[in-house]
């Protein structure tokens, strides 16, 4: 693939827009046949990407190999050997002039601008969208929601309060109140939309970033802070809200969800299970095993992948040669890509997926195509591996702003409503700051309490040793005070 074709696909991928029939690939139909699909998004001129850059190199790359592959095996073999030479000949001047390579190293932002994660020669996959980045309400033939003004206002309120909580937690970590924090900035629509699609008896298996889903499951936001402050291992009872504890190990919760869903099916319950994971976790073996078991046992589980396009500093194209949702085809269940910055689309698609699971139709993979606006965690510096231009382009597709524009343009909310949400946001900020600073330290001996139900001699010995160790500090302090 030439340098030009990679750049052209990069622009199209980062645009985050799409069409209607995202589930066609899962049913054997073409998901990217080039038809407009009429989803209300801005049209891109033929021969150009969403950013207006030429697409001719990409077109050459995608059209020529199939033409050469026809004919005998011998002819195909020749094509395989000749292709690299042609690609090199059509490459950029940089490839012919190694002496210029050091100059590229001086501009890390441009050199590390991400490229498309889709396979070379494939059309840009379509996605389900009900609300354009400009706040225009559009329809989709397969997925839709009929919501009242109050329900749409509720989605807006959820996203605003979740973002405020996340911002406060980030600030508290910078002030030394938390050891670490994983921000969800930019992913509010994916989490609130999917979270509000669930019933109380559905069960959620999160990663460590699903603060918006936790909000939808009525988990006290301050409970989430305890683990990152180091005062507990989660702080909430998973069975109270059907929301499992945060999982730090990448991808393991997807297996847990599949096993739980298999149990739900054996119990004869009509509830569904949803597992959240990221694009980076999709490379884990645990996820592939979960896909296999869920398909074989027809488990009532929905796999919700928030593709924020960066697994820390690793871009999606180094995770998969095809769009993530298309992986489901290889395991025998459907997959769909949804606009992860469109809360209405995320709600509609997740509702359909969990209902499908409840009625015994098995698993489904949802890829919410979104963007991680902040750092991976507060220990990360994204400016070292991605460009400012990329973030700026996605700021224009902010999930909260687009819903506000829709609420205002459709006359579904007035200034009093937005002012009320802002006041509630300020109150939440004050509550979070007060709660974290008054959070008690844990009992240092509590770690030994729940190791064994009936006690154990070795645990008793370890407890005594640890107590003696802690007492040594008190003795040292008393001696210094003399």
Tell me what you see in this structure:
Its cofactor is thiamine diphosphate. This is Pyruvate dehydrogenase E1 component alpha subunit. Pfam families: E1_dh (PF00676). It comes from Streptomyces qinglanensis. GO terms for molecular function: magnesium ion binding; oxidoreductase activity, acting on the aldehyde or oxo group of donors, disulfide as acceptor. With 482 residues, the protein is α/β, with parallel strands linked by helices. It folds into three domains: 98 residues, no CATH class; 289 residues, Thiamin diphosphate (ThDP)-binding fold, Pyr/PP domains (Rossmann fold); 35 residues. Helices cover 47% and strands 6% of the residues. The strands form two sheets. It has a five-stranded parallel β-sheet, with helices on both faces. Strands 4-5 form a two-stranded antiparallel sheet. The longest helix has 26 residues. The protein is globular. The N and C termini lie far apart (75 Å).
Supply the CATH class of the largest domain: Alpha Beta
Helix content: 40-55%
What oligomeric state do the depicted chains represent? Answer: single chain
Number of domains: 3
